[in-house]
């Protein structure tokens, strides 16, 4: 199977796995009140807020990319999710885009910003909910590297990804009216960058 086809298949699996809990929860608690897309924030940003959301999203994505460079340098040659693109050059771009947009960013945004943040926010308010989802997001990414890079570097990954997750939650809930499209775009842009760095 070619790389692009493999990434497409992986994306379908990832989306189904990460959307399973939000979907079941929605079916059990909110199906009669709203569509699933609205429940997890898959809706547009209101026109008056779009310019401000765009500025914040570009700024957050830029910081995300810049700090990603530092983290990649700190991790060195450790195998990561983008290692599949290593040395493949620009021909890997379609696979990188599918990986970035559908295999990683969409599933993770559905679960963390679309489900965890929104459900906790309904009970505990934005501050607590955003801190919890950011912490969980950071811990997930740190855990993936802890066994191969050691605790200090894993803590760096946790701090970086957790901080970015907090910013993405802020943009979504405080500026974009609960839409997860901004964080999806930010997340995807950073992952496209990481994939291209690996490919080139």
Automatic annotation (TrEMBL):
Q: Which residues form the CAAX prenyl protease 2/Lysostaphin resistance protein A-like domain?
A: 94-193
User: Per its UniProt record, what Pfam families does this chain match?
Assistant: Rce1-like
Query: GO molecular function terms here?
Result: endopeptidase activity
InterPro entries membership: Rce1/LyrA-like_dom (IPR003675)
Q: Which residues cross the membrane?
A: 7-28, 53-73, 85-102, 122-142, 154-171
What GO biological process terms does the UniProt entry carry, in alphabetical order? Answer: CAAX-box protein maturation; proteolysis
According to UniProt, the name of this protein is CAAX protease self-immunity
